[in-house]
Amino acid sequence: MLDFAFQKHLKTYYSDTMNCHLQQAQLSQMETADVCIIGAGFTGLSTALELAEKGKSVVVLEGACVGFGASGRNGGQAINGFEDGIDEYLQELGLKATQQLWNMSLEAIDIIDERIEKYAIQCDWKRGYLTAALNERRMEDLIYAKQTSSTIFGYSHMQLWDKAQLKRHLGSDLYVGGLYDGNSGHLHPLNYCLGLAQACLALGVKIYENSPVIDVELISDTKIKIKTAKSAVNAAHLVLATNAYVDKLSKKIHFGIAKKILPVESFIIATEPLPQALADSVINNGMSVCDNNIFLDYYRLSADNRLLFGSDSSSNKNMVDVMRQNMLHVFPQLESVRIDYGWGGPVDMTLNAKPHFGQLHNNVYFAQGYSGHGVALSGLAGRIISEAICGDATRLQIFERLKVPSLYGGKLVKKLALAVGKPYYRMLDRFF
Ligand SMILES: Cc1cc2nc3c(=O)[nH]c(=O)nc-3n(C[C@H](O)[C@H](O)[C@H](O)COP(=O)(O)OP(=O)(O)OC[C@H]3O[C@@H](n4cnc5c(N)ncnc54)[C@H](O)[C@@H]3O)c2cc1C
């Protein structure tokens, strides 16, 4: 039994402020569709929505409930670009394809805007995002990022802030400066996810909850049988939108793509709502913030002025206490503030932080490994997979050219990699 199957949403700030309870049925009769999608997070629902808009019949199978995974509990930061430096992309793909990828990452943000407007999704979407540097070495990385994005891509939304400029908007003494991007933004991820699901349902997509897929049978290039415990879907195409949960599935379901994913736990706490003056003493311009360490802190204010503070952390023990200390390190002025929520989940990292999208066989597609950029990139993934299913794989093929290393040896090796890798990267964060 998959441990996430049949689960309800974790108790989080997001689940306590969700716009609706969808409650879709379990799959109990045979279905036939053009496309079957496994996973009802951003990736699965974005793909379903794009396909439904193009007139395809779609069934989405979700093992737990819509937005149960990372999409319903993340930091909500929709950031353009990719996790790794642009030089590696230039070396690997050359200028033209790198420019295309960059433009697609901007399209990813526009997709959020379009969907919110088109389907009237209430999810507290706000633009404005800062990458904050903890030391001069990290600041140099930001100066370089600003230079390359303007010279190579002609991108003009970024501003470099020195310590004094940063302190006008961010009430922390910790940083030496930052890079502000007025295009990226943040949202209430669970409400965005539920909004996508409602848009899908309105277009005739069938979404089944509590329907974990336990087997997949490739019958031919145009026929696949996707089985749950109670029934099955016959489809012409299959999309794997299982994200970090891919690790828990059998190879027959994931076709080998699990070896590309290293699930890294990340945690978030939410404070009580802050009085306006205290909230302004933290962030006064509505932006979300992330530092540029390898193991990073990310945070923003919610619509009701709670600080949502996240970190990639090394332990599962007393996470709320650990996270509170992390928060107070950045914002000592919050010493007397109550913590109302704490939760965590696995982030879908790849070993080189490059996204992993592609096509397996003639009729199986996947998108995973967003490496911290999934809020934005998952919408793009849905669009380009739907294009490929409808006959134009040009944009998907650019992503397929990115090399993503495999981690062989299964879950034990992944655990070891994390145990050994974390202290090493923490040391890099401290000294470089
Ligand atoms: C704590 C945390 C903070 C994060 N913060 C950010 C952030 O601020 N910005 C950002 O860009 N990214 C962030 N991320 C990452 C981001 O949330 C993900 O990249 C993104 O949500 C991936 O969406 P998805 O639809 O691919 O996966 P998910 O939302 O995880 O959906 C996968 C779904 O597949 C289902 N599933 C899996 N296997 C099966 C099966 N066999 N049968 C049926 N269903 C199955 C699961 O139940 C799950 O609902 C964060 C992640 C976490 C955990």
From TrEMBL:
Residues 34-387 form the FAD dependent oxidoreductase domain. Transmembrane segments: none annotated. It comes from the Bacteria. Keywords: Oxidoreductase. GO terms for cellular component: cytoplasm. It holds the Pfam family DAO. The keyword Oxidoreductase applies. GO terms for molecular function: oxidoreductase activity. This is FAD-dependent oxidoreductase. It comes from Conservatibacter flavescens.
